[in-house]
Amino acid sequence: QDLLDLMVAEEESLKERLLKSIALCRKELNALCEELHLDPVEAEKGTTILERENSLRAHVEVLLKERRDRKQELKTLQDQDRDLCDILCVTPFCIDSDIVPSLEDLDRYRGHLAFLTSEKARGAEGQQEFLSCKRQIIVLMEELDHTPDTSFERDVVCEDEEAFCLSVDNIAALQNLLQQ
Tell me, what's the pLDDT at 23? Predict the structure, then answer.
């Protein structure tokens, strides 16, 4: 009888631990679903307590991996965005890096980076235009015995070609300077 009572007590204790674990997994699963912008995961009906606990634990692991993957992709996209924005002199994509981005947010970010990449490719043409205008401006300034007066003129004539921002406004200002 004592052995049987001990076995029943152990089973009751195990059941309590499993129910607590299920409650914790359910709470964590709901939080992850909300954070990842997913529909809540429904508990499987007709399963044992142990199977339910294992299933919930597996779902939590899958969603934790999904969260890590999204955060990592966001970090990668932000690094690419920073590099492209520095080159193109534009404002970085506005996204909160403290929260886990939704799949739609990541898609919009990828689209933004694709656009910036195409702009960078067009910027290579702008680089050639800049170099051509710069040479012409330097020759004309020497012929006119003119020293650069404004900071923009100094940037064009004296600064390294790589440091010059090839924005649409700067290319237009460069062409205007050449005309002057």
Answer: 94
What is this structure's pTM? 0.67
d(CA 180, CA 170): 15
- pLDDT at residue 12 in the model: 95
Please check whether residue 162 lies inside any domain of the structure.
yes
Are 154 and 108 members of one domain? Answer: yes
Q: What share of the chain is helix, strand, coil (3-state, %, to 5)?
A: 75, 0, 25
DSSP string, 78-113: HHHHHHHHHHHT-PPP---TTSPPPHHHHHHHHHHH
Is the same domain home to 6 and 64? Answer: yes
* pLDDT exceeds cutoff 80 at 158: no
**Whether 137 contacts 157, CB under 8 Å:** yes
Full residue range of the structural domain in which residue 38 is found: 1-71
Task: Decide if 44 contacts 52 (C-beta within 8 A).
Answer: yes
